[in-house]
Design a protein that fits this description.
This protein is α+β, with helices and mostly antiparallel strands.
């Protein structure tokens, strides 16, 4: 689901293999090196930026976190103005679902700050809730009593990137459903003029933002101008229990919504409080489905009557969420260590939230859709060639989620409102409008998308044991395969998923995807009882793969390798599309091709990975790990190490990029890929474990 993800990782630098800003292992803590402490200080606010609303770096950031100890105020996150002295950051660790900061205040108290964005792929009700947690635990360092007050806020900047838009707000209390507590207190913030299904600079322009905590006697609240609310806490250690009545533009004194908790004297033991943030949209997506364009509700509305009831359930569910998230974190680390070692576990733990933070569950329990935003490279909905590298992570977590992703594309095309015979590129040009392409003028990647859709559909059916799904959509799958049979062996001049590299005819790697797609359709035909089709497509695929080896391999090179395009023997390509052959168990591509590529990759390896192809020095972390998943152990381990080296050395300071220069680890010129769902491919080894590719012990791969 598209969570607010206020703890979204920002990859900056790693010392001894562990990122002190956004990374580490589930069992290791990281302290920023002294020479980089100032960089870290500048980045603290951005670590909390929501994935759907990367807040601009201005004099008035969208949040502030303060703590008052024995009458003296300190800043523990954010950059309020004026800026009280900062606390000391002593360590940081991350897991797949949590970012944990340990901070000390004047050597008197310790703050244990945990940002938790639960990912519950097998609990769809909880997974549908668009909220995240902030838990703060406080303890005395010297054993003496210290009077402690804690402050936390967000500003109206969260509700739109159009800072001239008028913000409205409310303060309220949602009563406890069981009467055992005082309920939860919340600030509700929203645009006065809602702009349904619209975004400004990738930030949504509709719905209600909430900031909530336990309603209790030692809680005070206030809304107002940022200087007034924060200044009130700095001066008095509490807030006025008042609500600003002057609705105004977001940039007009930056309306701010704060909570303060007075813990009194803290000496022995630990005291704590939990905050919740999130965006509630009753209607999530416009979708051109079976019966035309409809407004799909957020799935959580099927379980809760109001925003506030959903918010209260989530907030009161913290203990359960923390336990289940911890279990998931440990499972991911265990699986990753088993199949790829410590380096691989560092990568998978880093990208899990990034991948899942790009999705939104909609519809009803009876008909559920999962929509995905491409993020940063485009605003498309359900971009097929972005889903393709993403899908290993949902195969690992819950294959049913892949069906929920595929359905919008299939339903739209089966409706007859897409005129082309090949598979569409996406189901909508701009999120959250999944209104299709009835004119057929979506970005043309015909061979790419046909292969992707057939491969993903079979992968879902195999993992979920759902042959009925194949039968239901056989006609459309067969239509796409006929296109591949006509076009795959000798690809026309066209773009592939790596469209930033430009169009090219006779692409060796693209042809391979199409040929594997044909063989995948043979398997689909076999599983659905279409015997003649199964035999025919298998014959075509086996004929094509033999011809492909003659056309696309530089046999006389030392060492031999596949080419970027047919006949261009002085070129090479990262042959990541091999992965689908192994994933689906097709056994179409000869072992010699796998062995050949494993031997070749180290000979063209740059500092941070194997270049995508000879046109540029770009490395793609997603395709790098996909190629590694089907390489020899030695080559695999080196490719994993290269991605970790990128995380370690990159000068970029944004959510993990999947595209970077192989020699510098920086963004390529004018290509700023960040926070994209394609990092789900980095869970490809986890899928390998789940489908038992690993036969002979750690690192021993067989077919």
């Amino acid at each position: 689901m598209r969570r607010s993800n206020w703890d979204n990782p920002i990859c900056a630098s790693v010392e001894d293999g562990l990122c002190w800003v956004c990374g580490g292992s589930a069992s290791m803590k990281i302290v920023p090196p002294p020479e980089k402490a100032e960089i870290y200080k500048k980045m603290r606010t951005r670590i909390e930026a929501p994935a759907s609303a990367i807040l601009k770096r201005t004099k008035h950031p969208g949040l502030a976190r303060l703590v008052r100890v024995d009458g003296i105020t300190h800043t523990w996150m954010g950059e309020p103005f004026p800026f009280p002295p900062a606390v000391s950051q002593t360590s940081f660790e991350y897991t797949s679902t949590q970012s944990i900061f340990i901070q000390e205040v004047a050597e008197l108290i310790q703050l244990n700050v945990t940002f938790l964005s639960p990912v519950t792929p097998k609990d769809i009700k909880r997974h549908s809730l668009p909220f995240s947690y902030l838990n703060v635990e406080i303890s005395s360092l010297d054993g003496r009593p210290h009077h402690v007050q804690l402050y936390s806020d967000i500003t109206a900047e969260w509700i739109s990137a159009d800072r001239s838009a008028i913000a409205n707000w409310n303060y309220g209390v949602e009563p406890s459903s069981d009467g055992r507590s005082e309920g939860i207190a919340y600030h509700q913030i929203f645009l006065e003029t809602q702009r349904p299904f619209a975004e400004t600079l990738d930030q949504t322009d509709y719905g209600n933002w909430y900031y909530a905590t336990d309603n209790m006697a030692n809680l005070t609240y206030q809304s107002g101008a940022h200087r007034d609310v924060r200044g009130e806490f700095v001066d008095n250690g509490k807030l006025r229990n008042s609500n600003d009545s002057e609705f105004r533009a977001i940039s007009d004194d930056y309306p701010t919504f704060g909570f303060s908790v007075d813990f009194g004297a803290v000496s022995s033991g630990v005291v704590s409080t939990v905050f919740t943030v999130g965006l509630a949209q009753e209607q999530a997506i416009q979708f051109d489905g079976e019966h035309g364009v409809v407004k799909l509700p957020s799935l959580w509305t099927s379980y809760f009557d109001t925003d506030q009831k959903a918010l209260a359930f989530f907030h009161n569910d913290y203990a359960h969420s923390a336990d289940t998230s911890g279990d998931l974190d440990r499972q991911i680390v265990s699986d990753a260590n088993t199949v790829g070692g410590l380096n691989y576990s560092l990568i998978t733990s880093l990208v899990f939230r990034q991948a899942f933070g790009t999705m939104q569950l909609t519809g009803t329990p009876e008909k559920t859709y999962l929509f995905q935003k491409e993020v940063s490279s485009a605003d498309n909905v359900q971009t097929v060639d972005v889903m393709f590298p993403f899908f290993p992570i949902v195969l690992y977590a819950n294959p049913t989620l892949l069906k929920f992703l595929l359905d919008p594309l299939i339903v739209n095309q089966e409706s007859g409102r897409y005129p082309n015979k090949y598979a569409m590129h996406d189901v909508g040009k701009r999120y959250p409008n999944a209104t299709g392409h009835p004119d057929g003028k979506d970005e043309p990647m015909p061979l790419e998308e046909c292969g992707d859709m057939i491969i993903m559909t079979l992968a879902y059916a195999q993992r979920a044991k759902d042959n009925e799904y194949l039968t239901k959509h056989y006609k459309l799958l067969n239509q796409w395969t006929q296109y591949l049979a006509d076009e795959a062996l000798i690809p026309a001049n066209q773009i592939s998923t790596d469209d930033f590299a430009g169009p090219l005819a006779n692409q060796t790697n693209l042809a391979l995807k199409g040929i594997i797609g044909i063989q995948a359709m043979s398997k689909i035909a076999e599983l659905t009882g279409n015997v003649a089709d199964a035999s025919n497509y298998s014959d075509i695929a086996h004929d094509y793969i033999q011809k492909w080896q003659d056309l696309g391999i530089a046999h006389d090179a030392n060492p031999p390798h596949t080419t970027l395009s047919y006949g261009s023997n002085d070129t090479h390509v990262l042959l990541y599309n091999l992965y689908a052959d192994r994933l689906l168990g097709l056994d179409l591509v000869p072992d010699a091709v796998y062995d050949m590529q494993s031997t070749f990759y180290p000979t063209v390896r740059s500092k941070y990975g194997v270049p995508l192809d000879t046109r540029h020095g770009y490395v793609k972390s997603d395709w790098q790990l996909w190629a590694a998943a089907v390489a020899s152990k030695e080559t695999r381990d080196s490719m994993i190490a290269d991605v970790v080296a990128f995380i370690n050395d990159t000068p970029t300071t944004r959510a993990m990029s999947d595209l970077y220069e192989g020699d510098t680890a920086d963004f390529p010129d004018q290509l700023y890929f960040q926070d994209r769902p394609v990092q789900g491919v980095l869970q490809s080894f986890g899928v390998a474990k789940r489908i038992e590719w690993l036969k002979g012990g750690k690192g021993s791969w067989t077919r």
